[in-house]
Amino acid sequence: MSGKRVSSPLYTPEQRVKRDATVWTLVQGILAPVQFLVCLISAGLVIRFLRTGDGLWAANLSVLIKTVILLTIMITGSIWEKVVFDEWLFAKPFFWEDVVSMGVIALHLLYVASLFGGWMTPTGLMTVALTAYATYIINAIQFILKLRAARLQEAESRLQGALA
What we know:
Layout (H helix, E strand, L loop, with lengths): L12 H9 L1 H30 L3 H30 L9 H23 L4 H42 L1
C-alpha cells in the first residue's frame, strides 16, 4: 500500500467536454483576472484612505465596482456550474469554494448596504471592504488550487492512457 492518496477526478469525461465547449468557461477565465486586478486597485485606494483620510469617494466607488464584478462572476459562474455539473451552485466538486464565495458576497453586500444606509463610519466601511477582500483572496486561492489539481489529474490521466 502506497502513501499516495487517490482522489476522484474533478470532472467526468462528459463534464470535461461540457466545460471545454461552453462559452461560460471563457467568460469565467476573463472575469477572474479582471476581478483580481480591480481588487488590487481598490485595496490600494481603501488603504490610502485609511492611512491619509484622502480619497473616500474613490475608495467607495472602487468597492462598488468590485462588488458589481463579484456579482457578475457569481451569476456567470452559477450558469457555468449548471452547464457543466447540472447544478446552479454547490456542485460537489466546488462545494467549499461556493460556500466561501457566499461569505465573500455577504461581506460585499454588507458594505453596500452600510454605505447606502449610513450604518457605518467611513473607517468601518473600509474595514468591512478589506475583510471582504481578504476573504475573496482566500476564495481565489481555493479556486486556483482546485483548477491546478484538475490540470494535474487530466495530465496524469493522459499519461496513463499513453502508457496503456
